[in-house]
Amino acid sequence: MTEPVRGVGARLFVALQRVLPQHTLSGLMYRLARVRWRPLKDLLIGTFLRLYKIDMTEAAEPNAKAYVHFNAFFTRALRPDARPIDPDPQAVVSPVDGTISQIGRIDAGRVIQAKGRDFTVEELLGGDPERARAFTGGTFATIYLAPSDYHRIHMPVGGDLAWMRHIPGRLFSVNNVTADLVPRLFARNERVACRFETDVGAMAMVLVGAIFVGGIETVWAGEVTPARGKHRPSNAGTVPGAAGGSLRLERGAEMGRFNLGSTVILLFEPGRVQLDETLVPGRKVRLGQRLGRPAAASEHAET
Q1: Rounded distance between C-alpha atoms, residue 220 and residue 255, angstroms
Q2: Is-contact 100 91, C-beta < 8 A?
Q3: Is residue 246 annotated as a catalytic residue, yes or no?
Q4: Which of 69, 154, 166, 173 is catalytic?
Q5: Cα–Cα distance between 78 and 58 in angstroms, integer?
Q6: Residue 97 among the catalytic residues
Q7: Which residue in 69, 94, 97, 173 is the catalytic one?
Q8: What is the tens place of the pLDDT at every residue in 26-49?
Q9: Which residues are CB-neighbours of 273 under 8 A, at least 6 positions away?
Q10: pLDDT single digits (tens) 69-99
Q11: CA-based Rg of the chain, rounded to a whole angstrom?
Q12: What is the C-alpha to C-alpha distance for residues 158 and 247, in angstroms, rounded to an integer?
């Protein structure tokens, strides 16, 4: 056999996901993660703590048994000092704890997924060429959240919400194996895409779902997935009760959360953000760590 066993195993892993009832399994996980029966929820939390060696001293509530169910524990808040935001007020910061999956330039409207694989910004944002056009030639960062990571999502830079769109799709896992083997993975999975108008121009944040991800939430819309028959408008930039009918979130503010883990993709307009050259695929990042800074004014003029 010329193909490594690991390669065969990876292909079997992906093939199994193609035939599994992805949404049904994720729905079961959704319910399991919200069971309040103390013996079961304590067992789930305790097993997770041992398996992933979670540091509860960072949590706002360090007592694991105080959480009403597993999902409350999984999306736990951190102490205010646990993730300091980069002191440079112009720094564009990581919105999450995670690992850089890919990072770089959006070339001809396409985003790198893995070696030899990419997808278009247009399909990532739901097939609207007008929404995609702003990011052609821009920069992107894809950040993968492992189960052990903090799972609230924060703003990389302050901005005003322009629109939100829920895009139904598959629920493949989003680790390195599936990124290597599943074409257009992030443009096929269910996701929530949001555009903000910021001091560094338009920014899109795409929250990508995955198998066993029990839901995606935003602070303004609440639980967006699973949709459970609820209508989610393509545009949700107007928020009742917000000043002037719009929503502004400052850098570092919480904007959403994953109820179990997944991936965040950031898109920036061309000539707006100079990404840190030390950030390469496989590099761990933490919420508040600098991803880049505004590009020089001369670079804006060139674009």
Answers
A1: 8
A2: no
A3: no
A4: 154
A5: 6
A6: yes
A7: 97
A8: 778 888 889 999 999 999 999 999
A9: 92, 138, 139, 200, 291, 292, 293, 294, 295
A10: 999 999 999 999 999 999 999 999 999 999 9
A11: 19
A12: 11
